[in-house]
């Protein structure tokens, strides 16, 4: 059966932050429960060649080593911020080494941003627009733009097979009605929530906190939700008042997509 494996569950800075000595960062340096690499997931298919990654942050190499995987053939990217594309040069080098072109899927405007940032990368990666929908590993995949607050916008992905529908939405906040429409009728929602309750002024923020996410879930009603993209505000050793059927992601966690 298909499964979703969390490779990284951290926000843009990861945990621990190098400059920080808060309780969560210190715990992450020792026992490591709260150690979080930048957010990425592996969609693991039933057959060889059906698997693909979503996002390729600067921790991609460490994430691949952690699961013992030496090659990646296909990848979706949600947006062109560094914590989601910083590992692309290393992936491109892996493709060069095995003399194969990787398949990089994203909306055209994201591909254009990546090409501007890494002008040479098309030599190793085939840039494939996802705007009109794509099919990977038997999943019918659609994408749409979501509000990313002070950081502009990102894209979310909705993946469907007969009997199962899920969404990966790592970077969003304050979604409007049109942006929320694809979140209805889901078996699983993977949602970015950087804080439990973020106190920074709202105009400066870019990702839901868990209190705001609870209001969103009450509206769109997924059967199950996993929170990811978590900062050093979140302590996995604590118990949070979360809605039913909500889980906090940890690296290596496997969710069956059935």
Automatic annotation (TrEMBL):
<comment type="function">
    <text>Counteracts the endogenous Pycsar antiviral defense system. Phosphodiesterase that enables metal-dependent hydrolysis of host cyclic nucleotide Pycsar defense signals such as cCMP and cUMP.</text>
</comment>
<protein>
    <submittedName>
        <fullName>Phosphoribosyl 1,2-cyclic phosphate phosphodiesterase</fullName>
        <ecNumber>3.1.4.55</ecNumber>
    </submittedName>
</protein>
<dbReference type="Pfam" id="PF12706">
    <property type="entry name" value="Lactamase_B_2"/>
</dbReference>
<dbReference type="InterPro" id="IPR001279">
    <property type="entry name" value="Metallo-B-lactamas"/>
</dbReference>
<keyword id="KW-0378">Hydrolase</keyword>
<dbReference type="GO" id="GO:0103043">
    <property type="term" value="F:phosphoribosyl 1,2-cyclic phosphate phosphodiesterase activity"/>
</dbReference>
<feature type="domain" description="Metallo-beta-lactamase">
    <location>
        <begin position="37"/>
        <end position="229"/>
    </location>
</feature>
<dbReference type="InterPro" id="IPR036866">
    <property type="entry name" value="RibonucZ/Hydroxyglut_hydro"/>
</dbReference>
